Amino acid sequence: MLDATRKSLPHTPGVGYKAQHFNDIMADAGPVGWLEIHAENYMGMGGRPLAQLRHLSEKFPFSVHGVGLSIGGEGRLDADHLARLKTLCDWLNPASFSEHLAWSTHDSAFLNDLLPLPYTQATVKRVADHIDEVQSTLGRQMLLENPSSYLAFAESDMSETDFLAEIAARTGCGLLLDVNNVFVSATNLGYSPQEYIDAYPLDHVGEIHLGGHDEDEDETGAPLLIDSHGAHVVDPVWALLGYTLAKSGPKPLLIEWDTDVPEWAVLVEETKRAETALALT
Predict the structure, then answer these.
(1) 196 by DSSP, 3-state: which?
(2) 177, 221 in Cβ contact below 8 A?
(3) CB pairs under 8 A, 24+ apart, for 259-265?
(4) Residues 247, 201: contact at Cβ < 8 Å?
(5) So where are the chain's domains?
(6) Which of 65, 78, 111, 222, by CA, is between 20 and 30 Å from 103?
């Protein structure tokens, strides 16, 4: 049964919570109105990390972001992993839960990466079945995040935006729109990020994410962007965010910085820019 008393995420900037920032956040969170955690970091029992999380949850709404369910995998979801995720969500009662449109398991092996999927009706059914299982088990809606892409499958017979729209219609899930992922994929695969946003089912968006990426080249010398979450959000991605917000209206807006994590003051400056972008909508 869904919890009608559950907090919702505010239409303000949020950040991915890192334990080294606990004291800074409690002293002065700046414009940060909510926090995100990666589920797999908090599936243990007890200890200082969970104590800090309980303390923060009294002050901030939380979003829980999963990276290990392998929503697009061909096999069944890992029942033990899903049970641990339910335990976390039951006590934390986050305002939002999300996962990636990707697969990361094969048989009993876990692959330390988020791997892409072909966009076909067979994949729609598999992903929808897995989302139905997650939502039924957790008793809450989940959001599905668009991937960062480095290749396209010849067997795909629909666009990514049509695929996401059909998944949302079939399952009632929401969507997590990662604007940096759109920019990375559009650059790597040679399409317009604005046209992607034009086609995206924005009515289903529950969160928008921003993060940094690394720049490289492929074997032909063409630009290759790597979604790294380890740098400042670049100006073209901020511009794409403005384009998106002009169509969607304000949404909960997360700054992701998961590698080479900076001092809290650096994240605050990023969230101030996000706050300005939201104010312009």
Answers:
(1) helix
(2) no
(3) 259/228, 259/229, 259/230, 260/230, 260/231, 261/18, 261/20, 264/21, 264/24, 264/25
(4) no
(5) 13-279
(6) 222
pLDDT of residue 105: 43
Average pLDDT, the chain: 91
Nearest by Cα to 71 from 133, 156, 158: 133
Please check whether residue 235 is in contact with residue 170, taking contact to mean a CB–CB distance below 8 angstroms.
Answer: no
Top-tier CATH class for 13-279: alpha beta
Give 47's pLDDT tier (boundaries 50, 70, 90): confident
For residue 6, the model assigns a pLDDT of: 61
Q: What is the 3-state secondary structure (H, E, C) of 113-173?
A: EEECCCCCHHHHHHHHHHHHHHHHHHCCCCEEECCCCCCCCCCCCCCHHHHHHHHHHHHCC
Q: Which residue has the tokens 């934390």?
A: 92
Place of tokens 């998944």: 167
On the question of pLDDT at 110 being above 50, the answer is no
Long-range Cβ contacts of 20-25 (<8 Å, 24+ apart):
20/261, 21/264, 21/267, 22/52, 22/56, 24/264, 25/56, 25/264
Q: How many CA atoms lie within 13 A of 96 on its CB side?
A: 32
Helix (H, G, I), strand (E, B), or coil: what is residue 34? Answer: strand
Per-residue model confidence as pLDDT tens digits over 240-261: 999 999 999 999 999 999 999 9
Q: How high is the pLDDT of residue 151? A: 83
Give pLDDT, residue 33: 98
User: Which tokens is 69 given?
Assistant: 């369910």
